[in-house]
Amino acid sequence: MLLGRPNAGKSTLLNALLKSKLSIVSPKPQTTRHRILGILDGDGFQACLVDTPGLIENPKDPLQNCLRRQAMGAAHEDPDVMVLVVEPTAPTEALLREFSALNRTGKPVLLVLNKADLPGDHDRVLQAYADAVKPAAAFKVSALKKEGVAGLLKKIVELLPASPPFYEPGQYTDRYERFFAAEIVREAVCDLYCEEIPHATAVVIERFREVPDAPDQIHAVLYVERETQKGIVIGKGGKALRKLQDQAHQGIVDFLGRPADLELWVKVRKNWRKDPRSLKEFGYLP
Predict the structure, then answer these.
(1) What CA–CA distance (Å, rounded) separates 272 from 180?
(2) Does 3.30.1330.10 match the CATH number of domain 2-159?
(3) pLDDT digits 0-9 by tens, 190-199
(4) CA dist 81 to 95, 100, 137, 208, Å?
(5) Using one digit for the tens of pLDDT, what is the confidence trace for 244-267?
(6) Which of 55, 19, 62 lies closest to 38 in space, CA to CA?
(7) Residue 187 near residue 26 (C-beta atoms within 8 A)
(8) Distance between CA atoms of 272 and 270, rounded to whole angstroms?
(9) Which residue of 42, 64, 107, 244 has the smallest Cβ count within 10 Å?
(10) Three-state SS for 270?
(11) Residues 202 and 265 sit within 8 Å (Cβ to Cβ)
């Protein structure tokens, strides 16, 4: 179970551990909105690695509350190992108090200082977290450069209890392809737009149809909260939307490993981040 603040690099670390891209990544915080399971089969082990939304310090709307509850709930669902991912900057006392609660779960915590390729007093920062969290082990890694990841994986495997595999060999995740198609569209939004657009966007796959001897047919709707945001997403003469569709389409084809056609529409759902019915429809509430 990977835990940490938004933008600590949990999704990048999951992908590095899996040696394949599963979670979408972006420099923008709150990119991860769902728990994502990656299944890693190795020599004599199967590791079920779970990426979680960032632990938002002060949620500002119902969507952020949902994301924080997801992350907090994950830490209390009896994971065998918790991997706490932190950035190489000095933590606040409030952050240390919050993370110190992890060592009261009775489960081993592995402390991972990510972005170790950046300058800073990494040993001092790592020690500050370690004093609060009391981890079973601590690591300095660069998930982006895949440095130190092998040692972390080795320790994770050492701490896993003996158990039959939960999934068939070769199964990569428990999510369907349509879920990842929506995530890839959101990743393209995060890459191409700034300011409020990525946070105000939800993606729903309305149709995902496999057609024999033809490209998959995918129909996606991108929801925003205001007409002005819709205008920004579409752009002058539809230029921005075409660029978004092209980038998302290529990402989906690369992920699926087979041809697909993507049809992308933009609709307004006013203040959907504050609407419980919309949050449930979009998969953020049970």
Answers:
(1) 21
(2) no
(3) 999 988 899 9
(4) 20, 15, 11, 35
(5) 999 999 999 999 999 999 999 999
(6) 19
(7) yes
(8) 5
(9) 42
(10) coil
(11) no
User: What single-letter DSSP state applies at residue 147?
Assistant: B
Helix (H) / strand (E) element for 145: namely none
> Per this entry, what is the length of the chain?
286
83/55 Cα distance (integer angstroms):
13
Rounded Cα gap, residues 173 and 18, in angstroms: 11
CB atoms within 10 A of CB 170: 7
Convert 35-76 into a string of H (helix), E (strand) and C (coil): CEEEEEEECCEEEEEEECCCCCCCCCCHHHHHHHHHHHHHHC
Query: 88 φ, ψ to 5°?
Result: -85, 45
DSSP label of 88: S
Residue type, 212: P
Residue 197 is classified by DSSP as: T
Dihedral sign from CA coordinates of 149, 45, 41, 208: negative
Q: How many CB atoms lie within 10 A of CB 225?
A: 22
For 143-183, write each residue's pLDDT tens digit. Answer: 999 999 999 999 999 999 999 999 999 899 999 999 999 99
**Domains of the chain by residue range:** 2-159, 177-281
What is the C-alpha to C-alpha distance for residues 17 and 4, in angstroms, rounded to an integer? Answer: 16
The CATH number of 177-281 is 3.30.300.20
Helix (H) or strand (E) holding 6: none
